[in-house]
């Protein structure tokens, strides 16, 4: 058992597997908890992030069957940092292929933060009958306004000017007016050292704006070449292509109506600079029966105390059909 500030502890995975999903890509997946438990799908962020044992901490192993997988090109999936055959549509299809492979009739809960919230919503809209409930954190829908806020010259750049200047000045002066395109060119360079060096700077900016209070230990990830390459290359690939989505696709009325019957909990840091809170508000308004919880002292990271506590609380009670009364949106 766990109180809202204590993680659940799982035994070792009861299943670890590899699932080919194309001629190029093979997914790595792991299952934890109760083999006949309520199936939970955890979707990692990024694009280009990965899953780890720590992701199981939100889910009671006596109740849940927890499924983790690394998306195409990410984590232990192969080939690493591969951009070919890697789009949102491919990733949504992979979730359904994985569900069938694991012989899961329906996901009891789909749980995703940041880019994981994007995939959660896309999957639910594509397969609404396969999702019992959603818990979403740090809402991201890949709109131009969101990308401009986090990586353009107005938004996060005005809040972290010194970090943004370092991010921009890494590039030759002639390329600084085409920031994302110039970084992408470096990240797909044939030269390995060029790719890794650019990836470190791309991710340094991400890490600089990820929390309300600085977390210097997070920057240790910059020494992991495999992580920096996958995270930066896949982020740049998806951002350059608008997530392979139509503008405002996820928040369109007809798409939200497809999932309006799914119980949805939204948890959003008030000072999230990576995924601007406006998107969480827009999603909540488009899903009038959803629950939105603002964390008043948090940025983007799920490890910030208020966000972490609410994620534990809502995951803990997601198996119960009964709900206490609540305001449609509230400050934690």
Describe how the helices and strands are arranged:
Elements: E1 15-20, E2 26-33, E3 38-43, E4 64-70, H1 88-101, E5 109-113, H2 115-126, E6 134-137, H3 144-151, H4 156-159, H5 161-169, H6 179-187, H7 192-208, H8 225-240, H9 253-257, E7 264-269, H10 277-286, E8 291-295, H11 305-316, E9 329-331
Parallel strand pairs: 3-4, 3-5, 5-6, 6-7, 7-8, 8-9
Antiparallel strand pairs: 1-2, 2-4
Helix pairs in contact: 1-2, 5-7, 6-8, 7-8
Explain what this protein looks like in three dimensions.
It catalyses: Release of N-terminal proline from a peptide. A nine-stranded mixed β-sheet has the order 1-2-4-3-5-6-7-8-9, sandwiched between helices. With 332 residues, it is α/β, with parallel strands linked by helices. It folds into two domains: 15-144 and 245-331, 3-Layer(aba) Sandwich (Rossmann fold), CATH 3.40.50.1820; 145-242, no CATH class. Helix 7 (192-208) packs across helix 8 (225-240). The chain is built from eleven helices and nine strands. The longest helix has 17 residues, at 192-208. The chain has helices at residues 88-101, 115-126, 144-151, 156-159, 161-169, 179-187, 192-208, 225-240, 253-257, 277-286, 305-316; strands at 15-20, 26-33, 38-43, 64-70, 109-113, 134-137, 264-269, 291-295, 329-331. The protein starts with 14 loop residues before the first strand and ends with a strand.
């Amino acid at each position: 058992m766990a109180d809202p500030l204590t993680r659940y502890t799982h035994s070792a995975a009861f299943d670890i597997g590899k699932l080919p999903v194309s001629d190029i890509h093979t997914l790595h997946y792991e299952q934890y908890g109760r083999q006949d438990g309520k199936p939970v799908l955890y979707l990692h962020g990024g694009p280009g992030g990965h899953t780890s044992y720590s992701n199981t901490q939100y889910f009671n192993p006596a109740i849940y069957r927890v499924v983790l997988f690394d998306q195409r090109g990410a984590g232990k999936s192969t080939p690493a940092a591969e951009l070919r055959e890697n789009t949102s549509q491919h990733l949504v299809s992979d979730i359904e292929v994985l569900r069938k492979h694991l012989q899961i009739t329906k996901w009891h809960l789909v749980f995703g933060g940041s880019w994981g919230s994007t995939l959660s919503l896309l999957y639910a809209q594509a397969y609404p009958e396969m999702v019992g409930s959603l818990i979403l954190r740090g809402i991201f829908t890949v709109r131009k306004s969101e990308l401009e806020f986090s990586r353009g010259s107005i938004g996060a750049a005005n809040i972290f000017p010194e970090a943004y200047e370092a991010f921009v000045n890494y590039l030759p002066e002639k390329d600084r007016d085409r920031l994302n395109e110039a970084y992408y060119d470096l990240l797909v360079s044939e030269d390995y050292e060029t790719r890794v060096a650019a990836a470190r700077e791309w991710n340094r900016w991400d890490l600089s704006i990820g929390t309300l209070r600085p977390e210097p230990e997070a920057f240790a990830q910059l020494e992991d070449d495999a992580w920096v390459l996958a995270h930066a290359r896949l982020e740049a690939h998806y951002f350059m292509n608008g997530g392979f989505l139509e503008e405002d696709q996820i928040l369109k009325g007809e798409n939200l109506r497809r999932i309006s019957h799914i119980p949805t909990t939204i948890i959003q840091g008030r000072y999230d600079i990576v995924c601007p809170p406006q998107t969480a508000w827009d999603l909540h308004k488009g899903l009038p029966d959803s629950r939105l919880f603002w964390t008043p002292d948090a940025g983007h990271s799920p490890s910030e105390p208020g966000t972490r506590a609410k994620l534990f609380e809502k995951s803990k009670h997601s198996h119960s059909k009964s709900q206490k009364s609540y305001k449609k949106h509230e400050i934690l």
